[in-house]
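cache lookup: miss for this entity combination. No prior model stored, computing from scratch. Input as submitted by user K.M.:
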Amino acid sequence: LAKTTQPISMDSYEGQEVNITCSHNNIATNDYITWYQQFPSQGPRFIIQGYKTKVTNEVASLFIPADRKSSTLSLPRVSLSDTAVYYCLVSYSSASKIIFGSGTRLSIRP
Amino acid sequence: DAGVIQSPRHEVTEMGQEVTLRCKPISGHDYLFWYRQTMMRGLELLIYFNNNVPIDDSGMPEDRFSAKMPNASFSTLKIQPSEPRDSAVYFCASSYSGSLNQPQHFGDGTRLSIL
């Protein structure tokens, strides 16, 4: 199974768009990528999920290129409250395995 | 819905003692997951159940750790004997049936300190 890799940390400013990329090779066509957000002293919380092309909801977008070796979480116009740790998760359905990335600590400044 | 409920929220005990962590998943969810989170190792999957049956326990550190799910509304993670290196935050999560792809709902965790 592949390891999921994310940047350890990122900084940005309020109002900017933030893109966090997760690398994951050996992913099958029906394997999903899910992103979670975690604040201190809380459990991770679901943000968005997809398995190909682009998915958008009210808080984020998820871009998955054709080779599916990576995925990018896009947060439009971030605010201070988006400061958190963001995790990508790959669900390897055929192997009945799930693997979390190591997390990206996002810091938003005024 | 009350969400995933974990107890206790905090546990402090001495090395060698038995520790039992408890989890009540969201009603109707068929998958239940136990995770351990530390600064050094991040979020690690320990074990998960589907319809009360353990599916993957390859993440369980060693024989001192055991997990059970006697029914659809309750699971325990037990450490016996506990060691200082077991100190971490332990999360339980559940997800709806269908596949492993369903989004997981996490509890607020149990912060465990072994002295």
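stored under new cache key. The beta strands of chain A are 9-13, 18-23, 32-38, 45-50, 53-56, 61-64, 70-75, 84-92, 97-100, 104-109.
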